[in-house]
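Re: Re: ligand-bound prediction request (bumping)

Still looking for help on this. To restate: I need the protein modeled with zinc ion bound, output as structure tokens. Inputs repeated here so nobody has to scroll up.
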Amino acid sequence: MTRVPPHSGPGRRSRGGTLTDHLVDARVPRDLHAFIASLPKAELHVHHVGSASPRIVSELAARHPDSKVPSDPEALADYFTFTDFAHFIDVYLSVVDLIRTPEDVRLLTYEVARDMARQQVRYAELTITPFSSTRRGIDERAFMDAIEDARKAAEAEFGTVLRWCFDIPGEAGLESAEETTRLATDDRLRPEGLVSFGLGGPEVGVPRPQFRPYFDRAIAAGLRSVPHAGETTGPQTVWDALVDLRAERIGHGTSSAQDPELLAHLAEHRIALEVCPTSNIATRAVPTLDEHPINEFVRAGVLVTINSDDPPMFGTDLNNEYAVAARLLDLDERGLADLAKNAVEASFLDEDGKARIRNEIDTYTAAWLAP
Ligand SMILES: Nc1ncnc2c1ncn2[C@@H]1O[C@H](CCC(=O)c2cccc(C(=O)O)c2)[C@@H](O)[C@H]1O
Ligand SMILES: [Zn+2]
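Reply:
Sorry for the wait, this slipped through. Here it is.
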């Protein structure tokens, strides 16, 4: 197995910069960017289709000219500019429509793993929405085989360990909840890599409690509960995710900062927030990075993890999200290493696997700081 060398960003724009140039913050010292690039990491909140690189999306758009997704990378960057969250979901679904065959699924999954390996991601829990693919005609058995084939190839070739989170696209209603639960709990179908069960899509008009019976079935089948909550709605949505869906982690949880009692509860019970800073700006969930509540989370003692959500769509990658966190939290190398270890702690990897990555992080950081 060969380690994929770190590289500076997710790809090169035709005008010579990288997709994240406009986000790489000059206020973060260059050597911190270098430290981050080779820092071993774990990622807990990142979406399958949302991670399709511009190259993959362009290639698939060229195969399907009937799609409204541009095949030109330059036009694609403009296409991935959103006026609000609903607009983001529309664009997201237009990319979902490009994934039409099991081979598309396998290619996408393998290439996402390659991009992660380039950023020294040792372990990732990738959120997949199987309902969105099976309802568009991809055979369920072929879908599972495609993601498992890519997962095993990526681990063998890149050393990146992938696990799956299957999530319900909440706005698609209880039909999608039933289908997602069936795919996640039927022993003849559920893939070996499946570890958790989530809930994504718009939160407005999609109350969490209605999904309790489905999360009960998923948890009874041994899956861990990790719904999105508090991304575009208030702290009550986070409370509902904790109480009704028995969430062990919260996707985003941005509005938790509005409720000191909720922050104290999250901290006391070590319920991690899967924070995705640039996502929150790109979807307009938070107006500007300087207004992001990540500092409130840290001050309250909440277990904060850093994630990229849908990196190419948001013109970022995981390394850049760590650089954003370094600036917002004023972190040095040790602070960044602690962030990386938070994600390891909050992951559903077994204890041996956690110890292995934690040791890698500590060894790397010590070597970096050695005089
Ligand atoms: N930041 C995010 N916050 C929330 N979700 C996010 C985020 N990023 C990515 N997602 C993904 O977007 C999907 C949305 C899919 C969806 O809403 C929908 C609605 C109606 C029909 C269908 C369909 O497939 O027929 C799908 C979710 O499954 C989720 O995994
Ligand atoms: Zn998400």
